[in-house]
Amino acid sequence: MAKSKKAEAPELDRDAWEYLTYAPGRTCSACSRTVKPLEPVRRGVIDRVSGAPATVYRHDKCPSRTVAA
Q: Which of 1, 3, 12, 33 is deepest in the core (most CB within 10 A)?
């Protein structure tokens, strides 16, 4: 019998992120905290199975390593 694998969120390479920006009110994809005004974040895009790619933001120096895209 084949073992079933748990679906995991993709680990995104920091260098693959598009650029450093500001996105107040958005949610960090790693720690799920709301981005504050003038708090630097990296913008990235992930492919989805159905629909257009999703834009995600992550703190430049996020305290969390958990990925929840």
A: 12
